[in-house]
Amino acid sequence: VSVEIIKTPSAMRARSDAWRADGKRIAFVPTMGYLHEGHVSLLEEGRRRGDVLVLSIFVNPTQFGPKEDLSRYPRDLEGDLAKAARAGVEVAYVPDAPAMYPDGYQTYVDVERLREGLCGASRPGHFRGVATVVLKLLNAVQPNVALFGMKDYQQLQVIRRMTRDLDLPTEIVGLPIVREPDGLAMSSRNAYLSADERTRALALSHALAAARSAFTGGERDASRLVATARQLLDDRDGVRLDYLELRDGESLELIEGAVTRPVVLAVAAFVGNTRLIDNILLAP
Ligand code: PAF
């Protein structure tokens, strides 16, 4: 089986128009490539939810800051297409930057409040780039359903909000984080980690797991839950905490005092030069 590659928004749109005229339900998984098991779980669920499955691979320059890893972001188109074929993808939409952002490009989507704080604080402009590219991808693919991982939790909430605010017809589905057997959340950026950093990176999932056990044991105080997790992150050699915060699971507002509704405990930390994120949901 081989996957058809489409490279321009207009060709993608034409393909989707034809499918829709045939009454086909389109499922869509947007990615930046370098696919791992987390992406594969999105593709498999997409396969179940659609008659046809589209994967996009586009390392989106507008969501990277000037000092971030755009140029060295890991890429493996051959490997990705092999995985896509195994997962039953019909079309890989692989536009290049000039196709997405032609000369004179100047239109952006800003989800004003949800993009503040958490990753938005340390990555200014990041969610504006994400929302913009996701809207453009949805416009080209015209999917009935689009699937995103919950590892990028703030991204998922930004996309849900944009979809509602702009009356987009696509159903947005978020799927649980896929982890390595030792707990590390799957991420394309794990490829940057040395063996030693890979071990240190476990501090993130261990910290979240500690908070989860405290929560399961009945702890409901926000600051104590955060402190429990923080103990496993502070003063770790080679781990520099960016943020560790307990926030409302939907609005992402900071939680203080008692946890009385579903919340997300989200962490970002640099392990060496690699910035990793992880989170868990806690529901009373
Ligand atoms: O999560 C990602 O891989 C990217 O942020 C996305 C949603 C494909 C937009 O570039």
- Taking the alpha carbons of the first and last residues, their distance comes to 46 Å
Beta percentage is: 15-25%
Bound molecules: pantoate
What is the average per-residue confidence, as pLDDT, rounded to a whole number? 97
The residue fraction in helices comes out at 25-40%
Order of helices and strands: EHEHEHEHHHEHEHHHEEE
Outline type? globular
The tally of beta strands, per DSSP, is 9
Strand order of the largest sheet: 1-4-3-2-5-6
Q: pLDDT below 50 for ≥5 consecutive residues: which ranges? A: none
Contiguous helical run count? 10
What structural category arises from helix and sheet content? alpha/beta
- Gyration radius, in Å: 19 Å
Specify the biggest β-sheet: 6 strands, parallel
